[in-house]
């Protein structure tokens, strides 16, 4: 669509201004019965020779105009902040508001008054080919009237508007034959020029054309300066595509224009390219580029389509999660269940009467923490924490179990010395964020390692016993290990200390898991029907049975295949922070191989597994981040990109993160609906305690997940409470609750 604002260049056809000229052309074609026209067009003067490049384009001929690629964030007339759009400046109207009045001459004013559009296109009337010859004619007339030329004799031809054409200016300014041409042209106008008259006319032409080139160069320099500022570069390298008869045919116009631009922009390297039939070929190229971009966009969308989940698909995921939950709870089907629904022996949440000093260990990733947690009740009710973080080297993560637990005990010893508590025996809670089968609160059998851990001699063993054995080997101190807990359970307990309605815990960080308070009558692996027990779902393994195969894409399969545990933790690999960056990298690789990204060039960095960390998704999707900053992130990764590439990368990040949040929401909807049905309620109000870097740091993950739960569980009002150090504080609180219950039993 193209609405004609105003006619220029002498056109005055009625009933066209303010109307869509493309629609008018289509109607005319339809009347003629011509078929196969798809549409496409450009602005005036062939300024679209490279319309999709970041460079400005200039037309200087009968009329004059320029266009350039402007940042979308600066174009208030169009919605959207991403990428760039070509701006048709219509700079011929520059000065119509009076800003050029101080440099307009009496000759400019006379031309304007005698034109078809007085007061309009004032800049164009000072520089373009339609008016340059007329300016020279008016100057010659005035100087002749004042007796300075042609012996003061005027001729009818010299007095006639339009009789001194712009092509005469070009001819007269030619180096060798200029004066001869001046004599021929002036004689043709009925004059009898002397040699001095010819020299003066040559000089007048030179002054008029030089002013035109200088004005054109000054305004072009302003455009280039803006592009430089937009890019934020110290030195701009850019190319200007130029078309138009004055630029092409005048012997000195181009050189003067280039000189002016370079003088005004000493910190820029500007190259000028002459367009060959920019207005015709350019229109076709814009159309061809539009078709190419549309085809590439369609190809990318087709690849991303399987990652975009409908409401019906999410309901299906929710239903399948519910089925797997039932299998895990049932004694009959537990062995074959992938969602293990492990009893934690945590049967009570904090009631506010807990007090004392407790140690907590937090092992759930590449960092390990030791904490001293002081729990106070009464008027001073609250939790005070001191902690120290220790790293776990990869060789220990993937070495022997003895080496791993000796390292943990070494860290505990260092912390006790750091706190000045060597020799003090305190109750200890151990947050162990890996799948465990618990037979008691202080006994946890490791079922399998996840998150990159591979320490031998641990799977199938009680991790509390492994810890106690390591303590005894060191022979420095003794500790009362009261509870071994999962970080998800710790998160639920921490938030339960703040909100009594919190009966669900969720982790979405390096890995992902959930827990909730299940009715004892449904926990068939533990005897007894009274009360509730927290169930550690271990939902990261959801789908390991193949029940999610129709939702897994080729990119999920590629990530799984090259992981440390192929075929395991499939749901976790679709939603957690450890894998989302790698899914994005695989998609970017696929796009690039197909020529849909990075100009089809795959860098060595892009081939490197793990190079695209999940934290980059959070940074790239940040609402306050401009595309230039996105480009700098990608360049930091060794990926040379255009702004268009940055838009595509951002879209891929958005699609992958959104799917993760939706799948997480579908799983959580299954949990809260089960709790509601367990309790026979028509409507449930419940709080979910949440922890994890992905949930906390990603700009949109939490809101998408919340909205998904709301849509899939309309009979539940779910509040999400962000946990502050659930894995550490939570272990101490579970230990405090256990000590409270133990002391009450002893009394």
UniProtKB/TrEMBL annotation:
User: Where this protein primarily resides, as one coarse class?
Assistant: cytoplasm
Which UniProt keywords are listed? Acetylation, Allosteric enzyme, ATP-binding, Cytoplasm, Glycolysis, Kinase, Membrane, Mitochondrion, Mitochondrion outer membrane, Nucleotide-binding, Repeat, Transferase
Describe which pathway this protein belongs to, using the record's wording.
Carbohydrate metabolism; hexose metabolism; Carbohydrate degradation; glycolysis; D-glyceraldehyde 3-phosphate and glycerone phosphate from D-glucose: step 1/4
Q: Which domain of life is it from?
A: Eukaryota
Q: Which residues form the Hexokinase N-terminal domain?
A: 2-34, 301-497
Q: Which reaction does it catalyse?
A: a D-hexose + ATP = a D-hexose 6-phosphate + ADP + H(+); D-fructose + ATP = D-fructose 6-phosphate + ADP + H(+); D-glucose + ATP = D-glucose 6-phosphate + ADP + H(+)
Q: Which GO terms describe its cellular component?
A: cytosol; mitochondrial outer membrane
Question: Where do the Hexokinase C-terminal domain residues begin and end?
Answer: 60-289, 504-737
Q: Where is the composition biased (Gly residues)?
A: 36-48
Q: What is its EC number?
A: 2.7.1.1
Q: Which GO terms describe its molecular function?
A: ATP binding; D-glucose binding; fructokinase activity; glucokinase activity
Which residues does UniProt assign to the signal peptide?
none
The protein's location, in the record's own words, is: Cytoplasm, Cytosol; Mitochondrion outer membrane
Under SUPFAM superfamilies, the record lists:
Actin-like ATPase domain
Top EC category: transferase
| Coiled coil stretches, renumbered | none
Q: Which PANTHER family match?
A: HEXOKINASE, HEXOKINASE-2
This chain's protein is named: Hexokinase-2
């Amino acid at each position: 669509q193209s609405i004609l604002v105003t006619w220029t260049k002498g056109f005055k056809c009625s009933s066209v201004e303010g109307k869509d000229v493309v629609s008018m052309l289509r109607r005319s074609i339809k009347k003629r019965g011509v078929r196969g026209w798809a549409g496409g067009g450009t602005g005036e003067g062939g300024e679209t020779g490279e319309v999709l490049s970041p460079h400005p384009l200039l037309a200087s001929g009968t009329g004059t105009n320029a266009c350039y690629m402007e940042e979308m964030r600066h174009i208030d007339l169009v919605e959207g902040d991403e990428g760039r759009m070509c701006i048709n400046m219509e700079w011929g109207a520059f000065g119509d508001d009076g800003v050029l009045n101080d440099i307009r001459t009496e000759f400019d004013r006379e031309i304007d008054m005698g034109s078809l559009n007085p007061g309009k296109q004032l800049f164009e009337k000072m520089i373009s080919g339609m008016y340059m010859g007329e300016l020279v004619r008016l100057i010659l007339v005035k100087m002749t009237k004042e007796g300075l030329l042609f012996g003061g004799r005027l001729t009818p031809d010299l007095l006639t508007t339009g009789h001194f054409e712009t092509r005469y200016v070009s001819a007269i300014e030619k180096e060798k034959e200029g004066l001869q041409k001046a004599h021929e042209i002036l004689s043709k106008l009925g004059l009898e020029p002397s040699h001095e008259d010819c020299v003066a006319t040559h000089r007048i032409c030179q002054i008029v054309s030089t002013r035109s080139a200088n004005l054109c160069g000054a305004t072009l320099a302003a455009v280039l300066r803006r592009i430089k500022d937009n890019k934020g570069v110290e030195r701009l390298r850019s190319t200007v595509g130029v078309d138009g008869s004055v630029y092409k045919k005048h012997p000195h116009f181009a050189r003067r224009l280039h000189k002016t631009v370079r003088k005004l922009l000493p910190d820029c390297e500007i190259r000028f390219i002459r367009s060959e039939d920019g207005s015709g070929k350019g229109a076709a190229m814009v159309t061809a580029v539009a078709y190419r971009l549309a085809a590439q966009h369609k190809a990318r969308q087709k690849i991303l389509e399987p990652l975009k989940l409908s409401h019906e698909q999410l309901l299906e995921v929710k239903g399948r999660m519910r089925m797997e939950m039932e299998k895990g709870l049932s004694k009959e089907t537990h062995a074959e269940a992938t969602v293990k629904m492990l009893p934690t022996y945590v049967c009570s949440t904090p009631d506010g009467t807990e007090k004392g000093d407790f140690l907590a260990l937090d092992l759930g990733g590449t960092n390990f923490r030791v904490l001293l947690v002081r729990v106070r009740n009464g008027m001073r009710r609250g939790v005070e924490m001191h902690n120290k973080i220790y790293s776990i080297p990869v060789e220990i993560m993937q070495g022997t179990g003895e080496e791993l637990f000796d390292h943990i005990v070494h860290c505990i010893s260092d912390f006790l010395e750091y706190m000045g508590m060597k020799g003090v025996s305190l109750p200890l809670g151990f947050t162990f964020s890996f799948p465990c089968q618990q037979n008691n609160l202080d006994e946890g059998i490791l079922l399998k390692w996840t998150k990159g851990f591979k320490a031998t001699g641990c799977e199938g063993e009680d991790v509390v016993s492994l810890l106690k054995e390591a303590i005894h080997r060191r022979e420095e101190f003794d500790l009362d290990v009261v509870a071994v807990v999962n970080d998800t359970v710790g998160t639920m307990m921490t938030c339960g200390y703040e909100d009594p309605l919190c009966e669900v815990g969720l982790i979405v960080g390096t890995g992902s898991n959930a827990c909730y308070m299940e009715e004892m009558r449904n926990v068939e692996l533990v005897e007894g029907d009274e009360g509730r027990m927290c169930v550690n779902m271990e939902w990261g393994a959801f789908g390991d049975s193949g029940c999610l195969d129709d939702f897994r894409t080729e990119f999920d399969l590629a990530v799984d295949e090259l992981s440390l545990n192929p075929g395991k933790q499939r749901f976790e690999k679709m939603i957690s922070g450890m894998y989302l960056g790698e899914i994005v990298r695989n998609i970017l690789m696929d796009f690039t191989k197909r020529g849909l990204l990075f100009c089809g060039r795959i860098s060595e960095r892009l081939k490197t597994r793990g190079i695209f960390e999940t934290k980059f998704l959070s940074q790239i999707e940040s609402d306050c981040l401009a595309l230039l900053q996105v480009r700098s992130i990608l360049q930091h990764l060794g990926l040379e990109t255009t702004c268009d590439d940055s838009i595509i990368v951002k879209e891929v990040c958005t699609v992958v993160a959104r799917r993760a949040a939706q799948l997480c929401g579908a799983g959580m909807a299954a949990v809260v609906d089960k709790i509601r049905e367990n309790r026979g309620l028509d409507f449930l109000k419940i709080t979910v305690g949440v922890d994890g870097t992905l949930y906390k740091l990603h700009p949109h993950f939490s809101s998408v997940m919340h909205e998904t739960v709301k849509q899939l569980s309309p009979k539940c009002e779910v509040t999400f409470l962000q946990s502050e150090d659930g894995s550490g504080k939570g272990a101490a609180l579970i230990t405090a609750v256990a000590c409270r219950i133990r002391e009450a039993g002893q009394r």
